[in-house]
Design brief:
Elements lengths: L1 H28 L7 H23 L8 H4 L3 H36 L11 H30 L18
Helix pairs in contact: 1-2, 2-5, 4-5
Length: 169
């Protein structure tokens, strides 16, 4: 999976940047707006946004405000908070994936087309369901991993202090 994200995400961001550059160049330098380019930009942009979110879920590098970690003294207490956060993440992800599934079915049934180029919008709209499904799976994986660590018999190490005391000269 890492190889997939390693190549697809830079490709998508390059496509979006190139299309935007072309749009700006044509519109503001040559004063010739390109009709339909905005419609085309929606597809790689949505896939980039959602696959980037999936990659953050896969790497477990989402932005987190772990404020409680400052006050918790043991690794076990931090792990308990992490498991609770993972449970909430999986719950919300499942709920959003359920709604995305309904939208996916609607998009497939209606099969809308873009107004200028008549491209089926389904290919952009399905990114929401696919992305949320993968994010839910990765959130569940980290929930199981952290719960297994929490309930294992191996003793956990004491937590490292986040702020090290400074030595006075």
């Amino acid at each position: 999976m890492e190889r997939f994200f390693k190549y697809v995400l830079p490709l998508l961001i390059s496509v979006v940047a190139a299309m935007e550059f072309y749009q700006v160049l044509m519109r503001y330098v040559f004063e010739l707006p390109v009709m339909g380019l905005d419609e085309l930009l929606i597809y790689p942009t949505l896939w980039l946004y959602l696959l980037g979110s999936v990659n953050a879920a896969r790497e477990d590098t989402q932005i987190k405000a772990n404020v409680l970690d400052v006050f918790l003294k043991t690794e076990k207490s931090r792990l308990v908070v992490r498991v609770i956060a993972d449970i909430m993440s999986v719950t919300v992800s499942c709920w959003l994936t359920y709604w995305a599934w309904d939208y996916f079915k609607y998009a497939r049934r209606v099969w809308k087309e873009s107004p200028t180029l008549y491209i089926p919008t389904f290919w952009a709209e399905c990114s929401l369901f696919i992305g949320l499904t993968l994010m839910t799976a990765y959130s569940g994986y980290y929930l199981l991993k952290n719960a297994r660590r929490l309930f294992s018999q191996a003793p956990l190490q004491p937590a490292e202090p986040l702020l090290q005391p400074t030595k006075e000269l």
